[in-house]
């Protein structure tokens, strides 16, 4: 009945698989029917290592896919029905664009003859995500042109490859479909030959002319394959301190410097020996101050990475080495260069100071929470929400064990955080999400995915009933309108949310209690709430900075 | 300090107000600061009839604005901070585009020098919603060009006017903003002169040459100003049956025909006298079958409306009268034309048949729920969710009283329904939302808005734990994968959701109990759950159609 449609969609599915797609997030709908059913047949009867995830809310679906793609460093496919369903992917696609994640939206569509003519559930879906996608294509899987099969096989594989090529990014494949939509289940699967995109054996030569003094590595958020181990080893061999962004995967480490933003804010940095050169790896650092500091002191900056394009908004990079970090690190490792011991030691010593001032905090608020979380066991996956948590963890979280850390740190939204964390948690034992109450509320629908995927995920909600970050900004001065526009407490009961999703709930009322929870393995869905005060939290942060500054006579 | 910025944003705000904006939905963020604070000052100290609504989840914020704009028929403004926050408006903007609602997104942005250069929270926001907006503009409110103030005054007023001009639709105003963002609160408000877009006094002349036989009005979903009263009166004077789409606002009425889709499905229509001419008003009907029926029987179609563009996906309109419905109806009313009484009576008689077969339904499922809802008191606002509810109400809801009925019937998504209903409920006494469990889950965050806005809203959740509509589609045949891909039960506890939002909860277990609830005025947020079975519901629908057909010997 629908032999050609079936054959062509199978070509599409096998092509996705051939280029490494192993996870597809499907949102229910009617127009998706042939793709969804054949995907189900594929995972049930053809291959053992491809997985379907079902997510009713397409916004959460998008962020679930983002979380999987980001943490597994592989292309992930989303599938939604025509209309606003597909539009709900837009936030995750935008984040994928900013943070270079290979997310592929299969948007099923109404056919050409139903476009812009009053047919229901029909939007103009061509290039739906505009500048947020690396590429978009509309494929007529019901075309009768003889070349269609070969076109689908080539184009699909090419697009998946494009999505994963650095800088990785999102792709839209739009599929207009006419009724009847039912595929022929049980029809033989065609042979689809993989296209090999051969890797080139790149290397770079570095000379040491530009190494005229002390060097620091600035390890920004890592994208793509993990090179943190290599970076840490090279740094250690050459006595190079690593300004270790919380998302760089280089914490803990013998050379890792935590809290650069606080060190700059507190003035501590003025007492430290200046580097002559800073080598930047990865994405834009969480710290807003560190790039400005480089610029202010005219420290030479070498930027490493193929994803460089648009990576220095202070416009202070002197040298760009357009290669992948591992290749650069191999070359650097050949150089006969070591920082002198005093330089490295001085930077290293800051870590005791940071630890000491944090240890002085006695009220159980955001900073003591971060302190407790340094005890997370090795091999924990930790997702950190935007707004206050990512800043606090970047500054004050001196991990005791090797924890993998993730965030949506491209467009920096508070949306989709829980769903992204669910994506991170698949197939992993110990998983945590650190989040504030507003970001938690924003993506509560993601809790449904946590429940359905039967993962272990402990969500630590630091609940100050509103937007805590605004107490730190000039907006705090606008008393008359502050609570209305910025405070925005939602009065959300985390305990009742736990009830709704059959999650375990714990209210942690002391640091000690929290530490015990942090050390225990995560089991099922567990919501831990810590209730804090916005004003107290602001004051504690100020005190910490003051004490940090005083240690160096900068009070 | 920030005098110019303050002056220009005040020009923007006053211009919005001058063109009729009375509701602004603000989502908290930092980049929005000058606009949000000056809006707060404006509503607090300048005018008494402008309202700010705060919504943390921008997707829900967008649909809240859509609900207000749609039901009040006035332009509504959304305000969000840069990054994915603005992208979360995309689903509501797409629906506004499809259903012609004047929704205006103010998207604050990072300035030019931070674009595409690695600055955080910075997307390419120019023309963010692509083809979904009627127009978009980027306004540099910090420009030092002397013409800026006058430009903002003209451009803003022009854009609001454009948004409201039929066919109405969404607009994006993008506002790049540099730090410092704090406006000068208390600075004098400038004089902003309203631009008058004068109405033209249009009229049309109709002759009666084309009135060669019986006429039916097909009243589709109403857009813009309400003309249902006039339509009903003209129809009554000329003995014209009105195929009354559930969204046409013409139910109940002496001439209103309910259930055209069922009448066609059941075969009843074959016994009815054929019209010679059908005059179409409003948007695409909810009934998928009625346009196809017109085409099949080659009944002449006259389409009325300025929003015609792309309104007949069967391509069977013969005459297009590009004027507003009231003008056409005035002209039609002058014609010396009446249907003969038998014709009208035959159509009218179908209503007793529909009522009788529905009354025969004994199991308490979706159709008995619809039956109970016919008792809603006069002047109730009723929002109907997509998927099954809108179809059931279109077919079987013979309202006993004048109820205003709304839905997101453009792109027909299940997203944003609760938020849209909250928008509908503002300043209105009695408000209901009829919704299935999946659409309910999709926009649970909208319940927060219901709680915060302190409205009366009774939400009737017909809970069959999954996608009931798919049991009616060919997909039902794919047994092996059906529940995974289409059934998709979420196991949601409506009672616990009510707990979470401090809502009243009632489980209605009989039609009689539900009728009592329906007759009572809605108070606060109230969730009423009816638990139904997907398979039983499917079978009941089939039985009803069979009985309807049998009444006319079409079994």
Give the C-alpha Rg of chain A. 25 Å
Largest interface: A-B, 88 and 88 residues
- Which class of the largest domain in chain A in CATH terms? Alpha Beta
- Widest sheet, order of strands of chain A: 2-1-3-4-6-5
Ranges of chain A where pLDDT stays below 50 over 5 or more residues in a row are none
- Strand % of chain A is 15-25%
Number of helices of chain A: 20
- Overall mean pLDDT of chain A stands at 94
CATH topology of the largest domain in chain A: Rossmann fold
Which CATH architecture of the largest domain in chain A would you pick? 3-Layer(aba) Sandwich
Structural class of chain A: alpha/beta
Q: How many β-strands of chain A, per DSSP?
A: 18
Family (chains A, B): Belongs to the TPP enzyme family. MenD subfamily.
Keywords (chains A, B): Magnesium, Manganese, Menaquinone biosynthesis, Metal-binding, Thiamine pyrophosphate, Transferase
Protein name (chains A, B): 2-succinyl-5-enolpyruvyl-6-hydroxy-3-cyclohexene-1-carboxylate synthase
GO molecular function, one term (chains A, B): manganese ion binding
């Amino acid at each position: 009945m629908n032999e050609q449609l079936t054959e062509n969609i199978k070509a599409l599915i096998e092509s996705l698989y051939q280029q490494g797609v192993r996870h597809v997030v499907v949102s229910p709908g009617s127009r998706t029917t042939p793709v969804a059913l054949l995907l189900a047949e594929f995972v049930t009867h053809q291959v053992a290592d491809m997985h379907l995830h079902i997510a009713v809310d397409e916004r959460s679906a998008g962020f679930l896919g983002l979380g999987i793609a980001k943490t597994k460093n592989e292309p992930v496919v989303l599938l939604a029905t025509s209309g606003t369903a597909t539009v709900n992917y837009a936030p995750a696609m935008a984040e994928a664009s900013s943070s270079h994640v290979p997310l592929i939206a299969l948007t099923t569509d109404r056919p050409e003859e139903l476009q812009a003519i009053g047919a229901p559930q029909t939007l103009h879906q061509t290039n739906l995500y505009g500048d947020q996608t690396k590429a978009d294509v509309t494929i007529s899987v019901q075309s009768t042109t003889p070349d269609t099969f070969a076109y689908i096989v080539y184009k699909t594989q090419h697009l998946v490859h494009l999505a994963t090529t650095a800088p990785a990014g999102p792709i839209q494949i739009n599929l207009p479909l006419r009724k009847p939509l039912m595929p022929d289940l049980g029809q033989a699967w065609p042979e689809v030959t993989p296209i090999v995109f051969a890797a080139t054996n790149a290397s770079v030569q570095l000379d040491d002319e530009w190494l005229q003094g002390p060097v620091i590595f600035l390890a920004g958020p890592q994208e793509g394959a993990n090179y943190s181990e290599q970076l840490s080893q090279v740094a250690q061999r050459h006595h190079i301190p690593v300004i270790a962004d919380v998302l760089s995967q280089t914490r803990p480490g013998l050379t890792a410097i935590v809290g650069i933003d606080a060190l700059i804010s507190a003035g501590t940095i003025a007492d430290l020996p200046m580097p002559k050169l800073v080598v930047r790896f990865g994405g834009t650092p969480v710290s807003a101050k560190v790039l400005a500091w480089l610029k202010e002191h005219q420290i030479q900056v070498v930027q490493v990475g193929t994803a460089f394009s648009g990576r220095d908004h202070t416009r202070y990079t002197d040298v760009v080495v357009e290669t992948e970090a591992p290749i650069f690190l191999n070359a650097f490792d050949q150089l006969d260069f070591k920082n002198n011991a005093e330089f490295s030691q001085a930077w290293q010593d800051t870590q005791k100071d940071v630890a000491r001032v944090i240890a002085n905090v006695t009220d159980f608020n955001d900073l003591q929470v971060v302190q407790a979380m340094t005890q997370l066991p090795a091999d924990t996956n930790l997702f950190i929400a935007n707004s206050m948590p990512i800043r606090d963890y970047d500054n004050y979280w001196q991990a005791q064990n090797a924890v993998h850390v993730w965030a949506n740190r491209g467009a920096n939204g508070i949306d989709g955080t829980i769903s992204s964390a669910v994506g991170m948690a698949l197939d992993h034992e110990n998983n945590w999400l650190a989040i504030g109450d507003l970001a938690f509320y924003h993506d509560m629908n993601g809790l449904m995915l946590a429940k359905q995927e039967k993962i272990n995920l402990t969500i630590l909600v630091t609940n100050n009933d509103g937007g805590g970050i605004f107490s730190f900004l000039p907006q705090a001065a606008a008393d008359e309108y502050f609570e209305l526009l910025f405070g925005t407490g939602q009065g959300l009961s985390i305990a009742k949310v736990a009830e709704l999703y059959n999650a375990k709930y714990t209210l942690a009322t002391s640091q000690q209690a929290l530490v015990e929870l942090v050390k225990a393995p995560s089991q099922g869905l567990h919501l831990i709430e810590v209730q804090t005060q916005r004003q107290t939290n602001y004051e504690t942060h100020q005190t910490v900075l003051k004490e940090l500054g005083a240690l160096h006579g900068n009070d």
